[in-house]
Amino acid sequence: MSAARLRLWCRGVVQGVGFRPLVHRLAADLQLVGVVENVAGAVRLDLQGERRSLELLVRRLPQELQPPGALEPLAPEWLPPLVPAPPGLRISAASAQPLGAGLLAPALAADLAPCPTCLAELHDPANRRHRYPFISCSQCGPRYSIATDEPYARAHTTLADFPLCPACQREFDDPTDRRFHAETIGCPTCGPQLQWQGAGDWGADPLAAALALLAAGGILALQGVGGFQLLVAAGDPAAVARLRQRKHRPAKPLALLVADLEAIAPLVELSGPERLQLQHPAAPIVLLRLRPGQREPFAGVAPGAAALGVMLPASPLHQLLAEGFGRPLVATSGNRSGEPLCLDPAEALDRLAGIADGFLLHNRPIARRLDDSVLQVIERRPVLLRRARGYAPQALALQAPPGTALALGGDLKSAPALALGGRVWLAPLLGDLAGPLPQQLLSEGLEQLLERHGPRLVALACDGHPGYASHQLEVVAARRLGIPLQLVQHHRAHGLAVAAEHGLPLPLLVWACDGLGYGEPAGTSGHRLWGGELLWLTASGAERWACLRPFPLPGGERAMVEPRRAALGLLAAAGPEALGHPGAAACRAAFSPGDWQLLQQAIASGCNSPLCSSTGRLFDAAASLLDLCQRSSFEGEAGLLLEGLALQASLPQVAPMPLLPAAGLELGWLDWQPLLQSLLNAGVAPQESAACFHASLAAGLASAAAQAAGRLGATTVLLAGGCFQNRLLLERSAAALRAAGLVPRWAEQLPSNDGGLALGQLWAALADLSIKK
Amino acid sequence: MSDCIQLAHGGGGTLMQQLINQELRALYADPTQVLHDAARLELPPGPLAFSTDGYVVQPLEFPGGDIGSLAVIGTANDLAMAGARPLHLSVALLLEEGLPLALLRRLVASMAAAARACELTIVTGDTKVVERGKADGIFITTSGIGAVQAPTPIHPTAIRPGDQLLLSGDLGRHGVAILAARHGLALVPPVLSDCAPLWPQVRALLEAGVRIHCLRDLTRGGLASALHELAEAAVVELAIEEARLPVLEPVARTCELLGFDPLHLANEGRFVVVVPPQARDQTQTLLAASGGAWIGSVRPASKGARVLLTTSFGTERLLLPLSGELLPRIC
Ligand SMILES: [Fe+3]
Ligand SMILES: [Mg+2]
Ligand SMILES: [Zn+2]
Ligand SMILES: [Zn+2]
C-alpha cells in the first residue's frame, strides 16, 4: 500500500461543464481524498490516495469528460502525502474575481441549450420541474450570459440571490445525482420566475399571456439568454410587417424559431450536417437553402433571400414558447435600429415600448450581452457567420504560436481576440464601434485585459485604418505600456485568419474579397480603399499580385448604403458609352437628372469620390444595374438579393475577366468591363445576369489565382473576407479553383467578415515578432 | 505684365509705393492717414483680447465671400469668442507673383467692407511678394485687438455639467459653398457662405445679461470638431440632438448627395454658446431671430470626454471628430 499525493491543474473547457462533479465521482470511486477547486479559469486537484488509483484518475479524466468539456494535456505533479490525510473529499468554492466587461473570459463556458434529459423532465408531468422554464443541469443551461465573477460558481452568477430549497440542495450535494454541483440548479420553489407585462390580467400564467399575444398577431419582447428578443408569428404577414415597421428594419432577413424541424422541413433543404448544427447545444441560427420553387414561404420574413435562418430553442423558456405556439415564430434581436440588445427588463420596457405589445420577463438578470450566432453549412462543414451565443467565450480549436498578444479586430464588427498559452479566444461580436455602448465595452474590456495580461503581453495588434476607433484605442494603450503595436493591413489579416484556423504554413495565396479595407498602396498613385485583392502571404508580409480594376465611389461613405452610387462609379470608369447605355437605365433612373450630372462632375473633379477595388461594391453595382437594390437598408443586402436571384437561373453564361497590366501588381487589374457589358445587355433575363455575375467573378478569381499559383508554385488558395459569406460565390469559387488543380480553404470556426479579423491580426503580430528574434 | 503682381512690387522701390498708395489705401478707415510702421492706439480701459490667424482658402473667391472678407471677419470672430468687441486689426498680405491686380483690388475692397461691417479699423499692415509657385495667389494674416465686455471669463474651463448648448445659426453653408466653387459644381439654387461677423449676436447676449460660460466659433472641422475640443478641454460629455440641428434644405441635400456630413463642414459665421441651465430659454429667444437653436446639454464625463449624438430615430451614436483623411470606415 503506497500513499501518494497528486496536484493536477486541469485546463481547457472545464468550468460549467460538469467537470468537478466528474472528478468527484471518479475520486470517490477510487477512494481518494482531498480538494477540487476552480482557480483562475482552471480546476486544481489536490488529491491523496493510492498511487495506482491516482494514476488511473489521470488516465480516465480525459476519457470520461463529455463535450463540450475539453481538457488540455495533463502534467501531474507528485507531492509528499499529507499526514494526517485530509478527512474526505471536498469541492471548494474559490473567491470571486469580478469579470468586468468580460470581453474575453478564458475561464468560462458558453451558454448551452437544454440537454435531452432536461427536455424529458420538462415534459414529464410527474417531474417536479415539469414545465419549469429555468430547468438546467451540469450539462446544460446558461453560463457566460449570467456570469458576474470568475471562477464559475453559483455565487458568481446572477443566480447568487436564489438560495436553494432543501430538495435542490439535496441534489446539489449528492455525488450520484446528475445535478451534483450543477451551479444553475433551481426549481419552481426556489428558482427564477416568469413575469408578464402587458395587456390582460394573466398574472398567474405569464407564458399563456405571451402565447395569447403571439396568436393575436402581437409583438412579444422576450427576456432571452443573452438579451431581449422580439417575437411574432412567422405565418402572420401583417404582424411581421408591423415588426419591421416599428423596428425600422424594412428588408433584412429575420430568423425563425421552431420547436421541431418537421415544421420547416418541406420548405428547405435540410441535410444531415445541417440537422446536427441545428441540434448543437449552441443552438445557432442555421441558414437553410429554400427548396427549388419555394419563394418566400413566410411573406416578409426573408424577402428575396435564397435561404431561411432557422433555430431551435436555445433555452427551456424558448422551448415552452415555441412548442406552445406550435408554429414557426420570428425571433429577432430586441433592440431599436442601430442599438445593442436590451439586457435589463427596465431598459427593455423603456426602449422597446414603441415596438413590443407585451413583455415576457423574469427575475434572473442577464449579465452579458450575446447576440444569436449564425452559421451555414458548406460542403457538409459548419461555417460561422456570426460568433456569439453558444460559442463565446470558448477558445478556438487551433494552436497559436507561443506568446501573449491582443488584437482588436475591425470597427464595424468589433470582436477582439487574445492569444495566451498557445490558445486563442475570440470575443463575442460586440457590434459597431460607432455606437457608444460597443465602444465603451471595448475600451473597458481592453483596460481590464491590459491590467490582467499587460506584463506578459508581447504584442498589440489592430487595423491600419487611422480612423478606426479600435486603432486609436490601441495606439494609446501601446504607447502607455511601451508594447510594440502592429498595424496589420486589413486584407492580410483576413487571409492570415484563414491560414491560422487551418494551421496552414506560409507562404500562401489568398483572395481577400470584402467591402472596404484600408490598403497600403505602393507609391502615391495607388488607391487606399481595397476589397478585392490577390495577396501572396509570406512570413514577413503580403505581396499584392492582383486586385479588381479600381472604380470611383461618388459620395465616399454614402456609397456603402447606396448601390446606385457604386454602379454610377463603375459606369463612369467604363466611359461615356456605358453611362449612356440603355442597359444602365435602372441606375440612371435612381437619380434625378441633376444629381446624375452633379455626381459625374464630382467624380471628374475628384470630389469625395475615392477609387476602390472592392468586391462588395462590385456586387452593389450589379444589384443596382439589375434594379434589385438602389439603396440598401442593411449591410450586404445587394449581395443577398443578387444571390437569391441567381439561384433561380439555369446554367449561367460566363463573361471573361481579363487581367490588365497595372503598376506595382505582378498580374495587374482583374477587369470587370466585359462583365459590365454583359450586365448591360438588355436581352438577358435578370436571374441569368445575376447568375452570370457570380459565375464570372468566381471564374475570374480562380483564373487569376491559378496564374499566380503557377508562377509561385502554390497549391492552396485561401478565400477570405466578407464576400465569401455569399454561399454561391464561395461554392463557385471553390469549384473553379479545384478545376484548376488548386485546393481552396476558407474560414469555418470564425466569420470570414471583419468579425474574424482579430485572429489574423494576432497571427501577423506573433509572426512579425518571431522574425525579429 | 503691369496688370499683375510682379516681384518688384515687393522690392521696396517705387512700384511698391504705388501698390501701397493706390491699391491698399482702401483698407484703412482714413485713407488720408499718413502710414507709419506701427499704429498708435487709444484703447478703452479694462481687459483686452488679442488674436491672430492665417488665411489660405481656395478658391480665393467663392459664393458669399472671399479670402479678404474671411481674413477680417475670422479674426474679428475670434475676438468675439472671448466676449470682446473687435477694435483694431493688422493685416499682412503675402502676394504671389502673377496675382491679377484686379483680383487684389476686389479682395482689398472686400476687406474694407468687412472691416466696416465688423465696426473695426485696420490700423497697420505689411505686404510681401513671393516668386511664382511659392504661394497660392495670396495668403493673408490678420491680428486683432478687442475690448472684453463679458463680466466673467469665457473659457472651456467655465463649462459645468447641466449647462446648455445653443447654436447661433444653420450649419454647413460655408463648407458647401467652398466645395462647389472648388469642384465646379453647379448647385441649383447656389449655396452662399455663411461668413458673417459674430459680435452683434454675442453683444446682444451680453447686453441681455446672459451669463455666458463659453463660446466657440465653428470653423474647420465644423460643429463636430468644435464640440470635441470643448468636451476635451472641459472634460465633460456633450449630448446633442440631431433633429435640433438647423441645416438648410439645399445644404442638407448637397451633403447627402456628395457624401458630406453637415456636422463636419466648415462654417465662418456660426458659434456654439454654453450657458447655465437657467439662461437657456432667454438665449434661445435672442438667437432665434438669426436662425439659432438649442441643440443639447452638458453632462458629467462619466465615460470620458465625448460627444454623443441622439439620432432622429432616438438612438445614440458617438460623434467622432473628422480624422484627417475622409475615408469610409465601413468594411
Ligand atoms: Fe473586411
Ligand atoms: Mg485664431
Ligand atoms: Zn440538462
Ligand atoms: Zn429548488
TrEMBL record, chain A:
Domain YrdC-like: 204-390
Record's keyword terms, sorted: Hydrolase, Ligase, Metal-binding, Transferase, Zinc, Zinc-finger
EC number: 6.2.-.-
Catalytic activity, reaction form: C-terminal L-cysteinyl-[HypE protein] + carbamoyl phosphate + ATP + H2O = C-terminal S-carboxamide-L-cysteinyl-[HypE protein] + AMP + phosphate + diphosphate + H(+); an acyl phosphate + H2O = a carboxylate + phosphate + H(+)
Enzyme class: ligase
Active site per UniProt: 20, 38
Cited Pfam families: Acylphosphatase (PF00708), HypF_C (PF17788), HypF_C_2 (PF22521), Sua5_yciO_yrdC (PF01300), zf-HYPF (PF07503)
Domain Acylphosphatase-like: 5-93
GO biological process: protein maturation
Matches recorded under PROSITE patterns: ACYLPHOSPHATASE_3, YRDC
InterPro entries on file: Acylphosphatase-like_dom, Acylphosphatase-like_dom_sf, Carbamoyltrans_HypF-like, Carbamoyltransferase_HypF, DHBP_synth_RibB-like_a/b_dom, HypF_C, HypF_C_2, Sua5-like_dom
GO molecular function (one): carboxyl- or carbamoyltransferase activity
Name assigned to this protein: Carbamoyltransferase
Gene label: hypF
Automatic annotation (TrEMBL), chain B:
Short name of any one Pfam family annotated for the protein: AIRS_C
Domain (PurM-like C-terminal) ranges: 160-300
Residue intervals of the PurM-like N-terminal domain: 36-148
InterPro entries in the record: HypE (IPR011854), PurM-like_C_dom (IPR010918), PurM-like_C_sf (IPR036676), PurM-like_N (IPR016188), PurM-like_N_sf (IPR036921)
Protein family: Belongs to the HypE family.
Entry-linked NCBIfam families: hypE
The protein, known as: Hydrogenase expression/formation protein HypE
Source organism of the structure: Cyanobium usitatum str. Tous
